[in-house]
């Protein structure tokens, strides 16, 4: 488990002289000014697809998720709060999610604990779905349909 002191570390991105999150982070880090103050707005304004969320609830508890994000990235600032809104509406525990912030080269810095799968991140955010230590699918940068439907497609394909 990642220790509390290793959560929400920041560094200065020298290419833009901007403070960014690096390494393991949580919702508190996303609510900070480092994430651009956008978390609450995107979270509150996102309207989920009720039918897709109901279908997703059939798979509760069968997977973990690693979210690789950039606090400097507009897609991360938009998609990560929306994704967490879906997770909350599903009533899933925050324990199934690990969030890792990367710099502009897509490196997470030093992590206290290695991820259970290879990150191989080229674009952020990347949502990696894992079952028993094996990657079962990804949503990369922006969803093909919606976050809910892309999640549902990944879970249906693996579990059915």
What does this structure look like?
The chain is of the alpha+beta class. The protein has a single domain, classed as Glutaredoxin (3-Layer(aba) Sandwich), CATH 3.40.30.10. The protein is 30% helix and 23% strand. The chain has 5 helices and 6 strands, in the order ββαααβαβββα. The protein has a 6-stranded mixed β-sheet. Strand 5 and strand 6 form a beta hairpin. The longest helix is centred in the middle third of the chain and has 17 residues, at 74-90. It starts with 8 loop residues before the first strand and ends with a helix. The model has no long low-confidence stretch (mean pLDDT 93).
User: What is the number of E strands?
Assistant: 6
Strand order of the largest sheet: 1-2-4-3-5-6
- Proportion of helical residues: 25-40%
The chain-level structural class is alpha+beta
Rg:
15 Å
Query: Which spans of ≥5 residues are poorly predicted at pLDDT below 50?
Result: none
The coarse overall form would be globular
| CATH topology tier name | Glutaredoxin
Question: Biggest β-sheet: count, sense, barrel?
Answer: 6 strands, mixed
Task: Tell me the number of structural domains.
Answer: 1
Enumerate how many helices there are, as a single number: 5
Distance between the termini: 31 Å
Mean pLDDT: 93
Strand residues, percent: 15-25%
